[in-house]
Amino acid sequence: MDTYIRSALFIPANNPGMVQSNELLEADAIIFDLEDAISINQKDSARFLLDEAFQFFEKTDVVRIVRINPLETPFFYDDIALVKKFDIDFIMLAKASVESVKQLAQELVDTNIKIIALIESAYAVIDIENILKASSLVKGILFGAEDFALDMQIVRTKKSDEILVARQHLAITCKALNVFALDTPFTDVEDFEMLVADTMKARNFGFSGKACINPRQVNYVNEVFSPSLEEITYALEVIESATKAQLEGLGVFSLHGKMVDAPIINRAKLTIENAKKAGIKYE
Amino acid sequence: MSKTFDGIKEYQYINYEFSKNKALQLDNKLVTLEHLKENNVFFDGMTISFHHHLRNGDYVANMLFEIIEELALKDITIVASSIFPVHKPLVELIKNGNVTSIYAAYISGEVADCISAGYLKNPVYLHSHGARARLLLNKEVTIDLAFIAAPSVDKSSNINGSEGPSSCGVLGYAYADALVAKTVVAITDNIINEVNDIEISGTNVDYVIEVDSIGDANGIVSGTTQVTKDPLGLLIARNATKVIEHSGLLKDGFSFQTGAGGISLAVAMELEKIMIKNKIKGSFASGGITAYLVNMLEKNLFEKLYDVQCFDLDAVASIKRNKNHHKMSASFYANPYDRNNIVKDLDVVILGATEIDLDYNVNVTTTSNGVLMGGSGGHSDTAAGAKLTIIVSKLIAGRISVIRDQVTTITTPGESVDVLVTDYGIAINPKHQELINNLKDNTNLKIYTIEELYKKALALTGIPKQIKLSDEIVGIVEYRDGTILDYIYKVK
User: Fold this and answer.
1) Which of the residues B72, B204, B272, B442 could staple to B178 if both were Cys, CB 3.0 to 4.6 A apart?
2) Are residues B215 and B67 in the same domain?
3) Full residue range of the structural domain in which residue B414 is found
4) Would you call B139 helix, strand, or coil by DSSP?
5) Is the predicted pLDDT of residue B8 greater than 60, yes or no?
6) CATH 3.20.20.60 domain range(s) in chain A
7) Which among A216, A218, A281 is the nearest to B444, CB-wise?
8) Whole-prediction pTM
9) ipTM of this complex > 0.90?
């Protein structure tokens, strides 16, 4: 699970301005959308623009993901035929199922492209373990709560209590199978306070990142999924004290009046690792 | 990072002339435009000034233009602080030879197009706001008649900008006109017993004219000024703020100026967060004032606001109620010969650019096609005064790179420009090596040379064709000390 994605920003693949400036938007990953954001009569033009853009713009550190249409649509194979030629990291498979993951994996045999499964039905939530095991190319998931709520015939709320179990189930399963889990986007693009609260909830459930549907959400999401300077300072203190304690032959020691043992030391190391991945300069 | 400014002379007291009319009470000064026309207040070859505080809602300058046309005056010189699209009637006066010379700090709209097309007999003279105060107070230009739009006039003919239906908050650009003009006419739609706060003393006023309305409130100030919602604009603002944070200037006593554009306002918003977090109290913010700076004053993040022009209704309301929100004249703001001018005490200013070149010269005067569309305003004044001048702009606008080999017109010389923040990265004037190293070592900001950023832009836009302008000079761009910076050429 080397991929580091705190924020994954959806942009419509037929929007030239956003396609051109995608790498500037500070998202760790960009999801170029050929599915829901593109109306049926625009599918060809979106593919054409993406083809031109990927030929012109060199790939950068930003993770490239293309969301393709589901297996059940007439666009699935046309999307794959084009997208598999691109220099991209992932294909995001809408309405992923065991069957569609296997079909897609077959098509990607000769490429380096991996799969992100979009989990957006009640059955997919329950069947998540099998979907993740359907191909070794599946490296992560995105939870699509809006379609999930539609399938469940439940009303989505900002507090998101109605998707609590699904979120936790997906996060735990992904952690268990060592794939990354991206949380569903927060759909009110003007409410940044609730976005932060929702993102903190996702982080605490075990999601490694969150999808964004507006570039202005990216910075807030990145901040929640990055260690704070206070966390980094404490982690550095823990590591320094642990090194000293080790020389003195101590497995457990006290720092600021609190006991420090192996899990806390490992967490401190993880914090520093994440700070480095986030590009935070702390020295 | 401190800058020196060559050519500053000590301000010297000039004994301005006073007419006997100035000593009269309002009843004796209150006349009609007809009275002025009949009493030879207007004559051929005269120089007339007006201010732009009513911005694109101004009715008063157009009343003046009507008189010029009606009396068929010839060879008139207009000395305006700025000219806006609403002043379109001036076009015919230029074409007919009624108006043959213009001085202004900023010109946009059809008057600008008309000048670029070569209709004005003499080259337009473009200066900064501070230089206009210098020109007038130093009597480098003699004003025969100041035509002053006055939101309120009282029984002693004192003038105030922050009361009345056409209130604009402050009249900072008009103070010099009232002081030096041989004849001062106040045009008002609001005569009251006593103004709260005298901006222009009645002893400087010769005539008062009462009219139904001096302006359209909607065009005078914006209801609200808005921070950009454009994610790239917000990115630029965040990164500009990081530069300020690491400049060593953001500490107690910090002074700051920013414009009313969406990105500039976003910088103020980001700055507010950092100042609150780090418990920093600034000394002052200055310039055209918006709700965002008012908000920072009210949160005690600045001790004072120095306001030469209110940009929105919140600023107008604040200047009336908050004793720490000070009105200032254009001279106190930015006149290089005024020893107390505020811009020399600025730590940081945020400015825009239409073009910036590899020598950091900035153009906000003409389009990339060479057509007049603006002017310095306070751009070159604040850039010269501030310790850190930051230009914020998208690297590519309208498919054209903001960076050029050479700007079409120099508005602000590169020696007073320190940082360019774009969506693709940041370029810092090489004279600030310490700042460059600091930002590279301690932030994630993408720091490039301006040549590297230019290359990035050209990779996307291709190399632009050279614009061919004629050899005919239609404008002179003057720096704040009176030296000539550049010329504007007739568009082919």
Assistant:
1) B204
2) yes
3) 231-468
4) coil
5) no
6) 7-224
7) A281
8) 0.90
9) no
